[in-house]
Amino acid sequence: MLKILAGVRPASKAWARALSALVLAICVSSGTQTAQASDRVEINAMEYPWSAIGRVNAGGRGHCTGFLISPRHVITAAHCLFDPRAGRWRGPIEIHFIAGYQRDRFILHSKVTSYRRAEAFDYRDGATTRSAVRDWAILTLAKPIGTQAGWLGIKKLDSLMLSRIKAGEALLLQAGYRRDRAHVMTAGWGCQIRGVGQAGSLITHDCSVIKGDSGSPLLLFADGSFFAVGLHVIDLKAPNEESVAGVLSLSLFHPDGGKREAASALAQTSARWRNGQAPKGGSEAAMIPLKTIDSLLVRLGYLQGENLRAKEEARAQALSRFQADKGLPRNGRASVAILGSLLKASTP
Prior knowledge:
disordered N terminus
């Protein structure tokens, strides 16, 4: 049976066995398949941190999601790169990454020159928890579009951070290009951890993901910044029919305690275990997510709907009221950090 985490605890052999007993389903052509979409909202993909997330288009047959971890490197799910009709791995020339993709508008895009994946991952093994923890790939891009789109920092989701999430001090969220809305980015937040298995390598949570979301990041907002902590690779279904998202923990790539192959692959990129990087000034992508902030202020009742395209003064006044209500430093300034606070405040 799927176990619900009543509190923070380390992964155990018992939990690994329980997780392995779940009925699994993985969509290898377009992404993971699970739950309802009612908790998802459209977000502006041309604003950081969303701009660091993009579509992985493979061979013109469906898509997955991926995310930038450096100017030239993207993490996605390995199964997205396999062509099941031809029974082969696609060549890099068949793969294209588009950052900040929104309604057929793509400015930040690049071909893939090479990729590295877990050698032991075999698409033909089917959907198992053993294969899921090998379901990763790192793409190398022809162009350093991360300088224009920004990239995400990466972080381990350890027991201390799980405690902070449970206490409401940090927030988990997910964003990607799901099949039912393939040309816009949507996000859900307030994800609750359901379990940890495979010696801490596989995490399950209850935010909705469906086809197209494979390769998308499990995001963490903590201490004023957004980080990627996981990679969506599989859908898990318990005997009671509860669907949960299966996420490969990025701790797999950490030089301290990670898997040698994954850690080596990441070490060969310029990605580092620290904060990410917002787009440079003058980029097509925005450094500060003003549209997302405005929509959340409207959702929370601090800004009138007709002022969605708010002037700076109206937005500043709304932010100042929000900050006062939440006991935050009151400056009325829009920032990536205030986005996280607004997301936390709007979590159901």
